[in-house]
Write a structure and sequence with these properties.
139 residues, alpha/beta, seven-stranded mixed beta sheet
Length: 139
């Protein structure tokens, strides 16, 4: 199985989570920044993991916001997908990891198949290794 992990990361935290997920997968896995993701990359993968940090008051990371219009039926319908992201549960509890919710809803609206519950990380990835590993093992 070919897995593609694409992330939007400004400070490197979501990129770090993407790398940790890759290390727990027993599949051929490619990791890339969402700004480099093309429809052909998605079509070539069996499963796509999309990750974004949440910024401001529940907003997508900038690179991921630019990509959202490319999540369409032609590319994602019937694709196996999973979503992960980072946020601040203490400072922004009411919009914690809202980017994950936005991406998940968009994927569902175009007919993608969610293969596991989204992963929402608060704080440093190193403090959430068990949750990250569990997410990866469900792929």
């Amino acid at each position: 199985m070919k897995v593609l992990i694409a992330y939007g990361s400004t400070t490197g935290t979501t990129e770090n989570v993407a790398g940790i997920i890759k290390n727990h997968l027993n599949h051929e896995t490619q990791v890339m920044n969402i700004s480099n993701l093309k429809a052909d990359d998605v079509k070539a993968a069996d499963t796509i993991l999309l990750g974004s940090s949440t910024w401001g008051y529940g907003e997508l990371q900038d690179d991921f916001a630019d990509y959202m219009d490319q999540i369409d039926e032609a590319t994602y319908r019937d694709k196996n997908v999973a979503v992960f992201g980072c946020g601040d549960a203490d400072g922004f509890a009411d919009v914690f990891c809202e980017a994950v919710n936005i991406i998940t809803e968009k994927l569902e609206s175009v007919g993608a198949n969610l293969v596991t519950e989204p992963l929402k990380i608060s704080g440093m990835p190193e403090d959430n290794l068990g949750d990250i590993e569990t997410f990866a093992l469900n792929i």
